[in-house]
Specification:
The chain is mainly α and about 120 residues long. Helices cover about 80% and strands about 0% of the residues. It contains 6 helices and no strands. α1 (about 5-20) runs antiparallel to α2 (about 25-40) and α3 runs antiparallel to α4 (about 70-85). The longest helix is centred in the N-terminal third of the chain and has 19 residues, at about 5-20. It is globular.
């Protein structure tokens, strides 16, 4: 895909969302996650981690630390650590995300399978 164009559009969207909702609003977290995905695909892992971590902080503040909305961003952050070779950190984040999913859906739910 055209990641440079996607990055510009997500950065623009982030500015609009922050202006409208404020920097720590839960709606901003989704845009942060999308921008982080682009940064990750471009190989800018440090920026991706920063954006995912910010999104996680916002989601935890809004939903709580063990909410399913937090889980998906934890998994994304784990994937960045894995790309960088930080396997221990990635494992911890993946396991936390999995625990949240199992708590929310149950161990044998199809949503949990996607986390495995």
């Amino acid at each position: 895909g055209d990641y440079d164009k996607a990055k510009v559009l997500h950065e623009r969207g982030l500015r609009i969302m922050e202006k409208h909702y404020g920097e720590d609003h839960v709606e901003v977290a989704g845009t942060l996650n999308n921008l982080a995905n682009v940064q990750q695909r471009q190989g800018d892992y440090d920026k991706a981690k920063e954006l995912y971590q910010r999104a996680i902080r916002i989601k935890e503040k809004h939903y709580g630390e063990d909410h399913v909305e937090v889980s998906s961003t934890l998994t994304n952050l784990a994937n960045v650590h894995q790309c960088q070779g930080y396997y221990d950190k990635a494992k911890v984040l993946h396991e936390r995300g999995l625990r949240i999913m199992e708590k929310h859906y149950g161990e044998d739910h199809v949503e949990v399978a996607g986390t495995l």
